[in-house]
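call fold(seq) -> tokens
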Amino acid sequence: MKVIPIYASAGITGFESPAAEYLQQSLHLDEILIEHPSATLIVQAEGDSMQGVGIFDGDILVVDRYLKVKNHDVVVACLNGEFVCQILDLQNRLLLSANKDNEPVSITSNEMFTLEGVVSKSIRCHRPSNFFGPR
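ret:
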């Protein structure tokens, strides 16, 4: 993919064709989206629990296992055998939804909990993608 950067100014200073200044640069989305390739998972979001932080059903999530988790990071975790995408409250040991209709979930010693990684980026497909197979 080639990118042609266009710089808009507030005024016109001459009559030269705007196309005369176009530069072509290579663009590789994996270089933009994936910082740690060997520690990255690509997953698809399902449900409406994270809409409050801009993650919608069907969005593609870039999950980085290399990043050190911080309080209130959006994470993908496995809780009692089910993969979830939630906000991690480290201080209170809670998984928080970004949907006010969902209650927080306590992470107790009785729970089977593993952190899969931090959601570093999300991608919204405006047309359905079959990358993960039909839904």
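The longest helix spans residues 29-33.
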